[in-house]
């Protein structure tokens, strides 16, 4: 019978758009002994986490808590809880993760309307607003930061239009939360889903979500209390019979909010160690300060871009919509992008990303997120990248990249 | 603005039916630096985990991998992937978690047939088999170990009957895997879902699952490749148009198995630290040896029961169907069960569980699972329980419980 070796992961410099390096304080939090899910010490940690997430999302929403799953679990929880089969959902798509929203919404039984924008740019908000006025969807679902193309979509105007037209706006902020501003209340976003393993620098495993009273109102119309928990004081349903029940138990936000409320109505068994990690990760972020953190991400992006351009490389996509935390580089003609990535990982312990679909083999994607977003990492990468490109026959002036980045610092 | 204290969980003796104490080696594994999800070192760890899970489930199935969520995520993944809306699903219910299977199956669009057995006992397999012959369901979903009542349902005869009648059998082994025998192949179980935070002593956050070629055949008929990943070499669908597509993206086993296969078709971002924990937890279990582990759980159960009975307490439920790893105790008349639990936790740092629905306030539930299942814990608990019961006016002979347990050891 096969035997399995001791766990001993190699040290890595992770400069992908997620998962990224985890702060050692977060790793340490996960090594703490667990508490029972209804232990008052643990429910106090759950309440702490809700309070901190409100600050992170910049919202006064009552509901801000993690979904127990990877980032896309948060997207699915939002969509399956809000979409009744037959609801019209508008998805403006400008990269791979727009297709994911489309896919999830379709599986929830939505009638889909999509807008597509050339990859590498984003929508003029007026174009989206015109489509909302024309189609009058029940829900608009849109990506804030699209890691597949390294773009960011402005949302404030779209948020205002959705509020005026009484449309629910669901935002995928998986890549942006904690790295660039996400203004839930100021931009009038009804539901925002964040990711753990990107700018929060927490391991993949939880998806923080927030939603307002407009979204909650729809949930409550569809609510049913779980069988096996029903008593005379908690009847089976508060739902309006005109509304279809939610198609998932695991992702039912109306049940989850009862679990996260003082009611503590039993649902799943909260992921103890991941909750420790998320609480510690967000605590570190708030201690750094959101504005200081955003400034750090901008500085590292500037240094990285200066270094890459000094090496004679060109950046992919429309500069006006560049996402601070993901920098996409065109692979020079004749260069095998995967061979470059393999050598970076194998010899230098540095991981960068390839891309999806139409961009596969055409660009590299470099993430500067959270704990990975540091001067040490950017300089180490630029030096290593130069060496690897030279080995792949790309004419790069020795030292130019690192020197240009140092000039920025 | 509120400030948040350093994480400092109190040490606990956790004798609930989950989550239970985590082996320090598993906690240590979670504190290791992360690897990228497509780093060859990480995919090797994923493959290790699949190999170890096959041993744990005692199966030669190709597919054995974790679902990224809590235990009920594994149940929902199995059911939403296999149930087409309109499929007939038979759920024999003998406790709370049978209702959960019913609830999830209903939300998947199944036509439900349920059998109900008095709580505290289990089904005569012949009764279930007769219902299968009569109803001819597409799927039978049943709980193996019911923690709400502390019972275990024999499955071998039901497995044989389902195979003969070409019915898919889905088993909730969340509470039993790693604590008592679960014989996937020998009992002819088509899908088995385990839990992390019970007898595996891994923190909540992953649900190991295995399924055979019979289950896979149904998945493949419903398969669609995710939008945004489709290329000419991976077309959108291999599905039979007569079969309804799977209603979830996150829980789509046909996509998940592509992610866990050498194809590594991108889906979610695997939970790195939880995968480390699961791999280490199962590695420790296989090193102990499954038979030795089952014997340890039986021994501690015997000692615990002897101690409780020597204290004059009575056990709940039919002894013939008692689940080794959960012992239910009738709360003596006039005693406030929650006050006893609060004093155990507050003064002795010991957590035991209350119960659900009709048993709420009537029984305590004591788990002896995984790392929590130790002589030290059983003896500590019996001594503390005696002291707390005396303080609650229950006449208990001093020292009797601990001495009776020592006699068993």
Automatic annotation (TrEMBL), chains A, B:
It comes from the Bacteria. The keyword Transferase applies. The keyword Transferase applies. Pfam families: Aminotran_5 (PF00266). One of its GO terms (molecular function) is transaminase activity. Its cofactor is pyridoxal 5'-phosphate. Keywords: Aminotransferase, Pyridoxal phosphate, Transferase. Gene3D superfamilies: Aspartate Aminotransferase, domain 1, Type I PLP-dependent aspartate aminotransferase-like (Major domain). Belongs to the class-V pyridoxal-phosphate-dependent aminotransferase family. This is Pyridoxal-phosphate-dependent aminotransferase family protein. It comes from Cohnella yongneupensis. The lineage of its organism: Bacteria, Bacillati, Bacillota, Bacilli, Bacillales.
């Amino acid at each position: 019978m096969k035997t399995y070796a001791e766990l001993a992961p190699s040290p890595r410099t992770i400069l992908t758009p997620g998962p990224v390096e985890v702060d050692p304080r977060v790793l340490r939090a996960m090594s703490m002994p667990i508490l029972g899910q209804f232990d008052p010490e643990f429910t106090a940690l759950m309440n702490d986490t809700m309070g901190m997430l409100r600050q992170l999302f910049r919202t006064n929403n009552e509901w801000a808590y993690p979904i127990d799953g990877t980032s896309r679990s948060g997207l699915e929880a939002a969509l399956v809880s809000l979409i009744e089969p037959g609801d019209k959902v508008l998805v403006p798509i400008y990269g791979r993760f727009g297709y994911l929203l489309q896919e999830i919404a379709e599986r929830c039984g939505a009638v889909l309307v999509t807008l597509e924008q050339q990859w590498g740019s984003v929508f003029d908000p007026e174009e989206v607003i015109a489509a909302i006025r024309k189609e009058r969807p029940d829900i608009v679902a849109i990506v804030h930061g699209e890691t597949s193309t390294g773009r960011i979509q402005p949302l404030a105007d779209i948020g205002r239009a959705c509020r005026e037209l009484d449309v629910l706006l669901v935002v995928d902020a998986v890549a942006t939360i904690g790295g660039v501003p996400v203004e839930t209340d100021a931009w009038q976003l009804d539901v925002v889903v964040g990711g753990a393993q990107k700018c929060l620098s927490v391991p993949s495993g939880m998806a923080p979500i927030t939603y307002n009273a407009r979204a909650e109102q729809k949930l409550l119309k569809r609510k049913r209390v779980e069988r096996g928990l029903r008593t005379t004081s908690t009847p089976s349903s508060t739902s309006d019979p005109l509304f279809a029940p939610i198609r998932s138990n695991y992702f039912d936000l109306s049940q989850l909010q009862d679990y996260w409320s003082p009611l503590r109505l039993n649902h799943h068994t909260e992921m103890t160690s991941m909750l420790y990690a998320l609480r510690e990760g967000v605590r570190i972020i708030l201690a750094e300060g959101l504005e200081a953190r955003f400034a750090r991400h901008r500085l590292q992006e500037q240094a990285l871009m200066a270094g890459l351009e000094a090496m004679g490389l060109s950046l992919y996509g429309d500069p006006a919509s560049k996402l601070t935390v993901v920098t996409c580089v065109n692979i020079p003609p004749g260069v095998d992008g995967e061979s470059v990535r393999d050598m970076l990982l194998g010899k230098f312990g540095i991981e960068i990303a390839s891309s999806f679909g139409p961009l596969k083999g055409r660009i590299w994607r470099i993430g500067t997120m959270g704990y990975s977003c540091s001067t040490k990492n950017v300089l180490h990468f630029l030096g290593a990248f130069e060496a690897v490109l030279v080995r792949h026959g790309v004419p790069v002036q020795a030292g130019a990249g690192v020197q240009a980045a140092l000039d920025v610092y």
